[in-house]
Amino acid sequence: MNDALLGARVEVPAASAPVGPSLFVAGGPRSGTTFLAQALCQAFDVSWVDNLAARFWKTPEVGVRLSRIVFGDMGERRDRLSFRSGFGRSELPWDIHGIHYFWMRLLGLDRVENLFTVLEERGVAAADVCAELARIEAAGGAPVVYKGYYPSYFMRWFSERIPGSVFVLISRRPLHQARSIYRARIAYNGDPGPWWSMQPPEIEELEGRSPAEQIAGQVFGLRRFYARQLAEHGVKAVVVEYEELISDPATVMEKIRAEVESRTGLELRTTGFVPDVRAGTGGKPTEIDAELEEALKAFEHWDEPWVSTEPSL
């Protein structure tokens, strides 16, 4: 089906790029990225690739157009977002999706090692990525919020080459994040042993370690990876805290709006909705809390502060 629909693509000029801001939600696994993405979709006049459209991962703009026919325009379903998910997978057909297959194809991510390489060296052209994102934006009729985490491995590349791009990073208390990752391992794999979700640069160093040590290394390895990207010149990003998002979503949304506009010079229109976010249950204690706490202490020297150094326009 995806191959057949390649002929139905929305053609764009070779130099085409998104005209509005493109918001890339990022953060470690179980840090609140799904909550944050749905909050952005509700608070701002934006579009997104939903669970229906994501099935058309080679031609997501076709899926977005189909979704608008089936579910109505974004404004008609903005107040029906679920704010519920199962370990990152949103619940309703019109909820935002991470479109992982789309990003893997677009960025040539057929193996883990490619996450830590230079995109151009593997034949990824900025013009092609711009054209893909321009198609999605045109199909949705508004700036786009993206939830998939793969672009966050290449924050400077996107910031410098995709006009209007801004990363919105969310962090969470490490113990609560670690507890939720532990539960996700059991939910997906039946036991906590196998790896689950994002890989930090230190993935090989963590192989063969206990589940608690792997989870702690995953949490702090990714925090350090993001910290070092944020410190690079040219990276456009906004940093928010999970706990603040839950307790005061209106203030967090206003912070994001102001910083996106100051970093891009582009308007991010609000909808008047205050996101209906609720705290998840993943931070509740687990039967291995003592192991997790010990492992987090052992790896906390990997942690580095998240500070965006890119000045406003």
> Which oligomeric state applies?
single chain
Helix percentage: 40-55%
Number of domains: 1
Strand order of the largest sheet: 2-5-1-6-7
Task: Tell me what the structure shows.
Helices cover 43% and strands 8% of the residues. It has helices at 2-5, 33-43, 60-71, 74-77, 100-107, 126-140, 155-161, 174-189, 203-206, 211-230, 242-247, 249-264, 289-299; strands at residues 22-26, 47-48, 85-86, 89-90, 144-146, 165-171, 237-241. The strands form two sheets. It has a five-stranded parallel sheet, with helices on both faces. A two-stranded antiparallel ribbon has the order 3-4. The longest helix has 20 residues, at 211-230. It is globular. The N and C termini lie far apart (43 Å). The mean pLDDT is 91.
What would a concise description of this structure say?
The chain is 43% helix and 8% strand. It has 313 residues and is α/β, with parallel strands linked by helices. A 5-stranded parallel β-sheet has the order 2-5-1-6-7, sandwiched between helices.
Offer a few descriptive terms:
313 residues, alpha/beta, Rossmann fold, five-stranded parallel beta sheet, two-stranded antiparallel sheet, 13 helices, 7 strands
